[in-house]
C-alpha cells in the first residue's frame, strides 16, 4: 500500500493550524499530531485503518496522532468543504498534557453518550478559532490558546478512550516514520542523499533503498525530490524570488534539476505554475486565505459563533476622566448634518406610506432639503412622443411629488437626470426602474425640456422659492454604469443645461456632478475647466458621493470608476481590488472630495455630499443594527464642518433600484424599515439635531455644545468591522446574528468633569444600545418572526424608542458626570437650566 508521512508545519505565533479546505481524495497518510475535521458542505468518507466513517454537514471527526487514515469526498454534485484543526502536541506537553499517550474517539454520529450541548460547544470553539485567525483579532494568539485548552479539556472529559478500549491505534513502521521525519527536517540540504540517510540510521544503503521502495512505493530519491517540490510551491505562489533562488532554497542543486522534477511531477514549468497559482499577500493574509470560496460553507461554520458562552468577548476598559471648561470662548456651528435627506426613486414620493414616513422624520428631526433620483423618470410621464413624431411635456405627476415634499416643510434638491427613454440615444440603463444613462438623441429637445421644466416650477412655486432650491446635474457620470457617453459629451450636456437654466434666471443654483471616483477625477476637472472658460459656465455648488470604499493594499485600479450604490452582485468584478476601508477612510475620502473641488474653475464655496454611507451594498445586514447609530454620529461629528450638507443614503427602506427584499430587517440602507419602524441609526440623527449652536468640545468619542443657558453632550462608542466583512464576505452574518464581525468591542466609561456651571438643572439622558432603541434587537428578542401583525408592529415601534433617565441636580461651579456606554451605543445628555 502507498502511504506517506505528512509533516505539519505550524506558524510561530499559534500552536495550531486551522483552515478550510476543499476535499476530493487524499491517500493514506499519517502525521504526529491529532487532527479534527468539521464538515461544512457536502459528504465525506474517512477511513482509519480498516474502519470507514461517513460524515455529512455538521459532523465532526477526530484523527489521533500517528493514525493511518484516508479521506475521500462523497459529494455527488459540487465539492466537499471542511474545516481542519491540527494541534501541536509539543505545546500541549508544556502544559503537562501528553496527547501522544492518549487516544480519543470523536465521531459525532456515534456520540450518543455525549450531549448535543457538548458537540455544539466543540463547533463553537472551532468557529471562534477560525474567526480569530482570519480576522487577526485583538490578542488573537492568546485567545487561540485559550480556546485550544478549552477544547482539550472537553476531549479529555468526554472522548478519551481507556487503555483497554483502545483498539484503533495502527501498528505503524516506526523506523519508516523516523526516516521520513529525518528527510522532512533536512530536505533543504542539496547534498542529502541515500548514503547520508543510511549512515544516519546505521543501515546498508542498498538495504535502505529496497526497504524504502517496498514501504513507500517509490525510490527514496524521488520521494525526497517530491518533498522539496511540495515545500517550494508556497514560495512560488507568495514571493517574488526567482525560480533559481527558490530551487536552491529548497534543496535542489540547480534550477535545471528543479525544472526536471517540476515537469515530471506537475507537467508544467515553475514559471507556468507561478502564473496560474500566484497568491498576493495582503495584511499578512493571502487573498485565498480560505482554500474554498463558498459563503454557504463559511456561514455553516460561523453560525456557531452565536451561542451563549462563558467567554465574554466584550472587554471592559478603564473609565476615562476628562475636564470640560464650559467658560472657554465658543464658536458658532452650523447643523449641516440635518441639511440634507435622501431617498432613491422620485415616484416613491407619490405613495402614502412614503409620505407618512417623511412626515414622521420631519416632525421629529426636520431636515432642510431632500434629494432623489429620477425627476424625469418614465413613470412620471414627463416626456412623451406621439406615433407621428410629435412630443410634449407633462409635469402633473412632478407637481404632486413636489407638493408632497413641500407639505412636509422640506425643499427639493433636484437631481437633473436620468434621460427619458424616448429621448435617449442608446438603450443602456440602470436600476430596476430602467434609468436611461445616455446623451439625448436630440440636444434641442433636451434644452426645450429643461426650459419648460424650470419655467413651470417658477410659474407654479414662485421665483423666490425656486431660487432657494438646488439643481444637481446627473449622478456619478465618471462611473460607466451611470453615463454611456463620452466625458466630452457629458460636459457639453452640462454646459447646455446650465445655460438653458441661467437664461431664465441667473440666481437659480445649478451644480454637480455627484461624483464618487475622485481618485481618477482629474481628467474630468481638466475638461470641465477648459469648456467652462470658453462657454462661460460654472458650478454654483460642487457635490460628490462618499462610501467607505478603498483599494486593497498593493493593488492598482485600472478600471475608470468604481460602483457606488450597486448591489453586491454587481460589484463582483471589483472584489479583487475594492474593499471597505478602515475606520478613518471615510473621513479621508471626504477630505479628498473637498480638496478636488478646489481645482474646479469658477466653482462656488458650497460643497455638498449628496450620498454617503459606510457600505454601498443595499443588502448589508449591519444597516439594521446599533452599529449604524454610532457610525452615523462618529462620521457626522468628524465631518459636518467641512461641507454644507451630508446626505445619508437613504432615510427609508422603501427602495426600488433593485428587487425589494421580503424580510423586514434585510439590510436596507434606510433609517426606517419599509413599514415605518425606526432603526437605531434614526436616533443618530435625532441626537445630532438636538445639539446646540455653539461648540465647546469635539473629540473622537464626543461633542459638547451649548444653546443659551443649556448644555448638550453627545457620546458614542464606535467599533469597526473586521477584515473578513470588509472584503464583502458576510459569512459571519446571519438573519439573527449580526454583531460577530467587529474587531474590538469595548465597554467605555466616562467621568466628565464640567467646570464653570452653577444653578439648578434637569439632566436628561437618552441612549440607544442593543437593549433600548434598537428595533432589530427587539425583533430578535421576540423570536425574529418572518411576518408581523399590527400588534407586533406597534410593540416594535415602542421598543424602537431610546432609553431615558431624568435627574434634577443642583450645581456649584463644578459637576462630575459619570456614565458608561456599551459597544455601538450612543448617548445624548442634556443639562437644561431650571428657573
Automatic annotation (TrEMBL):
Entry annotation: catalytic residues: 476 (proton donor)
InterPro entries: Cupin_2, GH, GH39_cat, Glyco_hydro_39, Homeodomain-like_sf, HTH-like, HTH_AraC, HTH_AraC-typ_CS
Signal sequence bounds: none
Alphabetically ordered keywords of this record: DNA-binding, Glycosidase, Hydrolase, Transcription, Transcription regulation
The HTH araC/xylS-type domain, residue ranges: 177-276
A single MF term (Gene Ontology): DNA-binding transcription factor activity
BP terms from Gene Ontology: carbohydrate metabolic process
PROSITE patterns hit by this protein: HTH_ARAC_FAMILY_1 (PS00041), HTH_ARAC_FAMILY_2 (PS01124)
Protein's UniProt keywords contain Hydrolase: yes
Similarity section: Belongs to the glycosyl hydrolase 39 family.
Descriptive protein name: Xylan 1,4-beta-xylosidase
Amino acid at each position: 500500500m502507498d502511504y506517506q508521512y505528512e509533516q505539519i508545519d505550524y506558524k510561530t505565533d499559534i500552536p495550531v493550524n486551522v483552515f478550510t479546505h476543499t476535499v476530493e481524495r487524499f491517500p493514506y497518510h499519517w502525521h504526529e499530531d491529532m487532527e479534527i475535521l468539521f464538515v461544512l458542505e457536502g459528504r465525506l468518507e474517512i477511513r482509519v485503518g480498516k474502519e470507514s466513517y461517513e460524515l455529512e454537514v455538521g459532523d465532526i471527526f477526530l484523527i489521533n496522532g500517528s493514525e493511518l487514515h484516508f479521506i475521500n469526498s462523497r459529494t455527488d454534485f459540487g465539492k466537499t468543504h471542511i474545516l481542519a484543526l491540527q494541534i501541536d502536541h509539543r505545546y500541549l506537553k508544556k502544559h503537562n498534557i501528553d496527547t501522544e499517550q492518549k487516544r480519543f474517539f470523536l465521531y459525532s454520529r456515534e456520540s450518543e453518550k455525549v450531549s448535543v450541548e457538548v458537540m455544539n460547544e466543540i463547533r463553537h470553539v472551532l468557529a471562534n478559532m477560525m474567526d480569530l485567525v482570519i480576522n487577526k483579532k485583538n490578542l488573537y494568539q492568546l485567545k487561540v490558546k485559550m480556546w485550544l485548552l478549552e477544547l482539550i479539556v472537553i476531549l479529555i472529559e468526554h472522548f478519551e478512550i481507556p487503555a483497554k478500549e483502545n483498539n484503533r491505534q495502527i501498528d505503524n513502521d516506526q523506523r519508516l516514520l523516523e526516516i521520513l521525519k529525518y528527510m522532512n527536517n533536512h530536505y533543504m540540504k542539496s547534498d542529502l542523499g541515500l548514503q547520508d540517510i543510511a549512515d544516519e540510521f546505521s543501515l546498508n544503503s542498498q538495504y535502505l533503498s529496497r526497504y524504502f521502495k517496498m514501504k513507500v512505493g517509490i525510490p527514496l530519491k524521488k520521494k525526497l525530490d517530491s518533498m522539496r517540490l511540495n515545500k517550494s510551491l508556497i514560495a512560488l505562489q507568495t514571493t517574488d524570488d526567482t525560480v533559481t533562488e527558490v530551487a536552491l532554497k529548497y534543496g535542489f542543486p540547480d534550477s535545471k534539476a528543479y525544472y526536471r522534477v517540476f515537469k515530471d511531477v506537475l507537467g508544467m514549468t515553475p514559471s507556468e505554475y507561478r502564473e496560474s497559482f500566484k497568491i498576493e499577500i495582503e495584511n499578512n493574509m493571502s487573498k485565498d486565505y480560505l482554500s474554498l470560496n463558498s459563503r454557504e460553507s463559511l456561514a455553516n461554520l460561523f453560525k456557531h459563533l452565536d451561542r451563549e458562552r462563558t467567554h465574554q468577548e466584550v472587554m471592559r476598559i478603564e473609565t476615562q476622566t476628562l475636564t470640560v471648561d464650559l467658560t472657554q470662548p465658543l464658536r458658532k456651528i452650523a447643523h449641516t448634518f440635518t441639511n440634507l435627506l435622501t431617498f432613491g426613486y422620485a415616484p416613491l414620493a407619490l405613495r402614502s406610506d412614503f409620505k407618512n414616513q417623511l412626515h414622521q422624520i420631519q416632525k421629529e428631526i426636520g431636515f432642510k432639503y431632500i434629494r432623489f433620483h429620477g425627476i424625469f423618470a418614465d413613470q412620471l410621464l414627463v416626456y412623451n412622443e406621439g406615433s407621428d413624431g410629435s412630443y410634449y411635456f407633462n409635469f402633473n405627476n412632478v407637481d404632486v411629488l413636489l407638493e408632497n415634499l413641500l407639505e412636509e416643510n422640506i425643499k427639493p434638491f433636484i437631481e437633473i437626470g436620468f434621460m427619458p427613454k424616448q429621448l435617449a440615444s442608446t438603450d443602456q440603463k440602470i436600476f430596476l426602474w430602467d434609468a436611461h444613462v445616455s446623451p439625448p438623441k436630440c440636444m434641442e429637445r433636451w434644452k426645450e425640456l429643461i426650459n419648460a421644466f424650470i419655467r413651470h416650477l417658477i410659474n407654479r412655486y414662485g421665483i423666490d422659492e425656486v431660487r432657494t432650491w438646488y439643481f444637481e446635474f446627473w449622478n456619478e457620470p465618471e462611473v460607466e454604469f451611470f453615463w454611456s457617453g463620452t466625458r466630452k459629451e457629458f460636459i457639453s450636456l452640462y454646459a447646455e443645461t446650465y445655460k438653458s437654466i441661467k437664461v431664465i434666471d441667473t440666481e437659480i443654483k445649478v451644480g454637480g456632478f455627484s461624483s464618487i471616483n475622485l481618485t481618477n477625477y482629474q481628467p474630468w476637472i481638466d475638461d470641465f475647466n477648459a469648456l467652462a472658460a470658453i462657454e462661460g459656465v460654472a458650478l454654483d455648488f460642487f457635490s460628490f458621493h462618499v462610501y467607505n470604499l478603498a483599494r486593497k493594499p498593493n493593488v492598482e485600479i485600472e478600471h475608470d470608476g468604481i460602483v457606488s450604490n450597486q448591489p453586491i452582485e454587481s460589484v463582483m468584478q471589483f472584489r479583487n481590488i475594492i474593499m471597505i476601508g478602515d475606520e478613518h477612510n471615510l473621513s479621508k475620502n471626504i477630505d479628498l472630495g473637498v480638496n478636488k473641488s478646489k481645482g474646479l474653475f469658477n466653482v462656488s464655496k458650497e460643497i455638498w455630499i449628496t450620498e454617503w454611507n459606510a457600505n454601498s451594498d443595499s443588502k448589508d445586514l449591519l444597516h439594521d443594527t446599533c452599529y449604524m447609530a454610532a457610525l452615523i454620529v462618529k462620521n457626522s461629528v468628524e465631518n459636518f464642518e467641512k461641507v454644507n450638507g451630508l446626505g445619508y443614503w437613504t432615510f427609508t427602506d422603501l427602495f426600488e433600484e433593485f428587487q425589494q427584499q421580503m424580510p423586514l430587517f434585510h439590510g436596507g440602507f434606510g433609517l426606517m424599515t419599509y413599514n415605518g419602524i425606526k432603526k437605531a441609526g434614526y436616533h443618530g440623527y435625532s441626537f445630532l439635531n438636538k445639539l446646540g449652536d455653539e461648540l465647546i468640545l469635539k473629540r473622537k468619542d464626543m461633542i459638547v455644545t451649548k444653546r443659551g443657558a443649556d448644555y448638550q453632550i453627545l457620546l458614542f462608542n464606535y467599533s469597526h468591522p473586521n477584515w473578513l466583512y470588509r472584503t464583502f464576505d458576510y459569512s459571519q452574518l446571519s438573519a439573527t446574528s449580526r454583531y460577530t464581525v467587529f474587531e474590538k468591542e469595548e465597554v467605555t466609561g466616562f467621568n466628565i468633569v464640567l467646570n464653570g456651571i452653577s444653578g439648578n438643572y434637569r439632566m436628561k439622558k437618552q441612549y440607544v444600545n442593543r437593549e433600548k432603541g434598537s428595533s432589530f434587537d427587539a425583533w430578535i428578542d421576540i423570536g425574529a418572526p418572518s411576518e408581523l401583525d399590527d400588534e407586533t408592529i406597534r410593540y416594535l415601534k415602542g421598543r424602537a424608542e431610546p432609553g431615558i433617565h431624568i435627574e434634577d441636580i443642583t450645581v456649584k461651579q463644578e459637576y462630575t458626570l459619570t456614565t458608561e456606554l456599551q459597544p455601538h451605543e450612543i448617548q445624548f445628555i442634556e443639562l437644561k437650566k431650571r428657573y
